[in-house]
UniProtKB/TrEMBL annotation:
Component of the lipopolysaccharide transport and assembly complex. Residues 195-211 have a biased composition (Low complexity). It comes from the Bacteria. The keyword Protease does not apply. This is Lipopolysaccharide export system protein LptA. It comes from Trinickia dinghuensis. One of its GO terms (cellular component) is outer membrane-bounded periplasmic space. One of its GO terms (biological process) is Gram-negative-bacterium-type cell outer membrane assembly. It is found in: Periplasm. Residues 46-166 form the Organic solvent tolerance-like N-terminal domain. Its main location: periplasm.
Length: 220
């Protein structure tokens, strides 16, 4: 049976005893003063790739081959990135790797007002510019870094979402992260203490699903 829980210092929907103890001791959350870089959503998206095609019917631009997409402090690296813009001007991107690739798509974003960054890897990365929501799907790992190298928190699951507006994470288990010692593919997390004091558990978890509007080609 899959389990999902919030790692943002807000109340989980369902959590095992061990995970509850971890959440009481520390939380995968950020201080209330810091968020993802708020100016990112207003920055232009710049993309470097081997090839580019435009699908006029679907209003989607497709980049392939060593793609590097940047939008302010946001960075996405993948074999293929699909980009579209809605009538309001918000931009959406989906990054995926080539079938059979041993590498994973990569995401990176600075947190506003602090020397901290959020980075993640997964087979698929969806960025929703309107909600400032990043969804990492299949073999997903997200880390909070102090500076560019020191890992403070890390969570690994089948689907991990990062809500940049609220600095809120959610994670979901799945068979794609099953392995020795974890046959059911449960979420695994490493959480750093927050000055030795437990963080409050309140609020509701974010939706755990890739946004339909940013899939580009309409397939999973």
């Amino acid at each position: 049976m899959n389990e999902s829980f919030s790692l943002s210092g807000r109340r989980p929907t369902r959590v095992g005893l061990a995970a509850a103890l971890v959440l009481l001791l520390s939380c995968f959350a950020f201080g209330p003063a810091a968020h993802a870089e708020q100016a990112d959503k207003d920055k232009p998206m710049n993309i470097d790739a081997d090839n580019m095609t435009y699908d006029d019917l679907k209003q989607v631009t497709i980049f392939t081959g060593h793609v590097i997409a940047t939008k302010g402090t946001i960075l996405i690296k993948a074999d293929r990135v699909e980009v579209h813009q809605d009538p309001e001007g918000y931009q959406y991107a989906t990054g995926t790797m080539a079938p059979g690739s041993k590498d994973l798509a990569y995401f990176h974003q600075k947190r506003e007002g602090v020397d901290e960054y959020v980075e993640g890897t997964a087979e698929r990365i969806d960025y929703d510019g309107k909600q400032d929501l990043t969804t990492l799907t299949t073999n997903a790992t997200v880390r909070r870094l102090q500076g560019l190298t020191t890992v403070m928190d890390q969570v690994h699951g089948s689907v991990v979402t990062y809500d940049g507006q609220n600095d809120f994470y959610t994670a979901r288990s799945g068979k794609d992260v099953a392995g020795p010692g974890n046959p059911t593919g449960r979420v695994r997390a490493m959480l750093s203490p927050r000055n030795g004091a437990p963080a409050p558990l309140n609020g509701a978890p974010a939706k755990l699903a890739p946004a339909q509007a940013i899939q580009g080609n309409g397939t999973q």
